[in-house]
Write a structure and sequence with these properties.
Structural class: mainly alpha
Helix content: 55-70%
Order of helices and strands: HEEHEEHHHHHHHHE
Distance between the termini: 24 Å
Number of strands: 5
Strand order of the largest sheet: 1-2-5
Radius of gyration: 22 Å
Shape: elongated
Number of helices: 10
Length: 271
């Protein structure tokens, strides 16, 4: 996601046909359609793939853990005879999440917990590293910061029309994030993922002993569990929308940019 950072310098970059044009403010200038630009820094690409793998495993193992008690409650307590606000049986026949959606596929709560706890640590430390590096290289301040003008009705309406027309990049600066990207990434990176981590910690008996106030913040263990589930569903929906937009924007160009850092400006940005 680090656009315009770590551009190729010197003759080596130019020989490879990668644009490193910058304006007087040190920001990327407009690039013609078909130009290959440096879009993502190595740190961003590593974080993207580590997080992608972690989220997939966390969602699958989390659904297996949910199968151990497929009901959700609000408050401090919840058991079989307490009123639940959600039952898995409302969504899946038999009252259990099917094996093709869980990790592992056959019921194994102990193994699912091991997978879940390990990749929760991977997710948390990867996020921390991304935030530290993003502040250091100014990716967050430069590319992800939401400015007041971004939230004006005129800009929001314009970006909505562009999305409906399947134009996702600004012709004046194709590497820049549009408003909806900034808003969605901000919600995921600065709200959803940290809240997922904190609600997960709140459900840990060990953390309850060390930080008893954490449960109070979320209103009890069952409320923390419900919030954790809601956030996980939100992340899953974000992933689905993200993949759909990758398909619409051009799979190879988008995937290549997250593998090599190089991205070709689409033809429609010159329109």
């Amino acid at each position: 996601m680090d656009r315009g950072f770590a551009t190729f310098r010197g003759s080596a970059g130019r020989k490879r046909g990668v644009s490193d044009a910058m304006n007087t403010h040190g920001e990327p200038s407009a690039a013609a359609a078909g130009t290959v630009v440096r879009r993502h820094a190595l740190s961003t690409r590593l974080w993207h793939w580590v997080t992608a793998i972690s989220v997939i495993i966390l969602l699958g193992s989390g659904l297996m853990i949910l199968n151990a008690h497929p009901h959700l409650y609000w408050g401090r307590y919840g058991a079989n005879y307490d009123p639940a606000w959600f039952h898995v049986g409302w969504v899946f026949e038999g009252g259990r999440v099917p094996g093709w959606l869980t990790i592992p596929q056959s019921y194994n709560l102990a193994l699912a917990r091991r997978w879940h706890l390990f990749f929760a640590l991977v997710l948390a430390f990867a996020l921390l590293a991304f935030l530290v590096i993003g502040l250091f290289n100014r990716h967050i301040q430069r590319d992800l910061r939401i400015r007041t003008r971004d939230l004006s009705p005129r800009v929001l309406a314009h970006d909505l029309r562009e999305h409906l027309a399947l134009r996702f990049h600004d012709p004046a600066d194709p590497r820049a994030y549009n408003v909806f990207q900034k808003l969605s990434y901000a919600l995921v990176i600065f709200v959803a993922l940290p809240a997922l981590i904190l609600t997960g910690l709140a459900m840990s008996p060990g953390m309850n002993a060390a930080w008893p106030w954490l449960l109070d913040i979320f209103g009890g263990r069952q409320s923390a569990r419900s919030i954790h589930f809601i956030l996980a569903v939100a992340i899953a929906l974000f992933v689905i929308v993200h993949l759909a937009l990758v398909l619409l924007a051009g799979v190879w160009n988008e995937v290549r940019s997250m593998l090599t850092g190089n991205w070709r400006v689409p033809e429609d940005t010159d329109a």
